[in-house]
Design brief:
Largest sheet: 6 strands, mixed
Number of strands: 14
Shape: globular
Structural class: alpha/beta
Order of helices and strands: EEEHEEEEEEHEEEHHHHHEHEH
Distance between the termini: 31 Å
Helix content: 25-40%
Strand content: 15-25%
Radius of gyration: 21 Å
Number of helices: 9
Length: 305
């Protein structure tokens, strides 16, 4: 039996598109243990989600029943239990989770956060609403735009602690596909991003996003002809994709107060890109915002009981 069983009062879980994180929370609200894994939700069979959850948090379970509050793809279509989206406008900090019945393991009392949806233009988010809840709990007077870069980057208009509208770009997924599975892969095989190459490519695509497809091929051609350093090629790829995203989302960030919630160094690249356009963005790490959102919702749920 794990020693962590004795001090976990409840468990917070964030199940993202690529990363899964969980926190064991004690009676005073302190984090007594934390675990992080990497797994694609698409690789989990429909009948294996409960086992996947147990693999993540099983060391913190004892003989008793423990509340588990989760957000993200665990509540999406094909997840453990699909939880409805709530339409915008909506206040993330006021959203209530849905209890999940019928789990085989009686040690878990699982609840899952709903996502947010927008009918026109059609858009959805699942997981980011909890980060927004954490952010707005700490800064309820914020009026502006929150950018949440990642696999699917979100641009969210906030007013009076409410999500008014949002827009999603598949920039992270495109970067992953192009850098790992396309003809560019061998040329961008580096963990480093050359800042000058990033800045140049960003400016190029922001000025004319119609050039994207041609500029992407130019990365390959330049590698073939001039043996471009992989960090330079990677900087050009990243700058091109983020530049095209910023061009498409210009109405969201231009002239607005902007906060960025995300993992570094990606959040730093978005802050650099916005800074080149005269926008100073406040950068916050995503882990604390997610945990703050789950903690707030857990406390509200207890208060209602």
């Amino acid at each position: 039996m794990s020693a962590t069983i004795e001090f976990a009062r409840w468990i917070a879980v964030d199940w993202g598109n690529t990363h899964q994180r969980a926190w064991a929370i004690d009676a005073e609200g302190g984090v007594r243990a934390h675990v992080a894994r990497t797994r694609d939700p698409r690789d989990i069979p429909p009948d294996a989600w409960e086992a996947a959850l147990l693999d993540l948090i099983g060391d913190w379970l004892g003989m008793g029943r423990i509340p588990v509050l989760a957000c993200g793809m665990i509540g999406g279509r094909g997840g453990l239990c699909e939880v409805d989206y709530r339409p915008v406008p909506a206040k993330p900090a006021d959203m209530r989770p849905s209890a999940v019945p019928g789990l085989r393991d009686g040690r878990i009392a699982l609840s899952i956060m709903p996502g947010l949806c927008q009918s026109s233009p059609a858009d959805v988010m699942r997981g980011e609403e909890t980060q927004l809840a954490g952010f707005l709990t700490a800064t309820p007077a914020f009026d502006g735009v929150v950018c949440l870069p990642g696999t699917h980057s979100k641009w969210v208009q906030i007013s009076a602690a409410e999500v008014v509208s949002f827009q999603t770009a598949m920039t992270g997924e495109l970067f992953s596909l192009l850098s790992q599975h396309s003809s560019l892969a061998q040329y961008v095989a580096s963990d480093a991003v050359d800042p000058a190459a990033f800045d140049e490519s960003l400016a190029d695509l922001l000025s004319d996003p119609r050039r994207l497809a041609q500029r992407l091929f130019a990365i390959r051609a330049d590698g073939l002809l001039h043996a471009t350093a992989p960090s330079v090629a990677r900087g050009r790829l990243s700058g091109a994709l983020i530049g095209a995203e910023l061009a498409a989302t210009r109405p969201y960030w231009l002239g607005q107060d902007v906060a960025i919630i995300g993992a570094r160094p990606l959040a730093g690249l978005y802050a650099r890109a916005l800074g080149a356009q005269g926008v100073t963005a406040h950068v916050l790490d995503d882990d604390p915002m997610t945990l703050a959102g789950l903690t707030h919702v857990h406390a509200m749920t207890l208060a209602k009981e």
